Amino acid sequence: MQELPLSKVYQWLEPGPVVLLTTARGGRRNVMTMSWHMMVEFTPPLVACVVSQGDYSFAALRATRECVIAIPTVDLAAKVVAVGNCSGRDVDKFGTIGLSPLPAQHVAAPLIAECLANLECRVVETRLVNRYDLFVLEVVKAWTDPARTERRTIHHRGYGTFVVDGETITLKSKMP
């Protein structure tokens, strides 16, 4: 074994795909790239995510207590990185980057038409926001686009490096 710098630990634990988180506040919509999230519960579906106080989306998420988590596929990787490399304080990311907002059913934040799936979410727990910027979200409506042929997601490994989903294997499980 070789020692691993603690600053690189997250690169080994990133569990899920890179997602796009949308918010809307005061008539202004925004989107950010996010990879620090995890499932917390199956029923109802709860997702914990970190949205830093330095992110423009933080104030909107905290104030409105709702968002959309959109799940892009590998063909959107360049747009996902472009979203993450600018701030909604300065840029209309939807218009500049070329993402198509769609109305959600239960939240003001928009769905993203180009994404494989969109999860409408409401904040249900904020006790860890002040200390860790950690929000717990309940998914209240989920959408997918069955017409999308590309289904491979991307996973952040740090410093501009991503892994693309590959082969799927199915093993016997006792989970429902």
UniProtKB/TrEMBL annotation:
<keyword id="KW-0285">Flavoprotein</keyword>
<dbReference type="InterPro" id="IPR002563">
    <property type="entry name" value="Flavin_Rdtase-like_dom"/>
</dbReference>
<dbReference type="Pfam" id="PF01613">
    <property type="entry name" value="Flavin_Reduct"/>
</dbReference>
<protein>
    <submittedName>
        <fullName>Flavin reductase (DIM6/NTAB) family NADH-FMN oxidoreductase RutF</fullName>
    </submittedName>
</protein>
<dbReference type="InterPro" id="IPR052174">
    <property type="entry name" value="Flavoredoxin"/>
</dbReference>
<dbReference type="InterPro" id="IPR012349">
    <property type="entry name" value="Split_barrel_FMN-bd"/>
</dbReference>
<feature type="domain" description="Flavin reductase like">
    <location>
        <begin position="13"/>
        <end position="161"/>
    </location>
</feature>
<comment type="similarity">
    <text>Belongs to the flavoredoxin family.</text>
</comment>
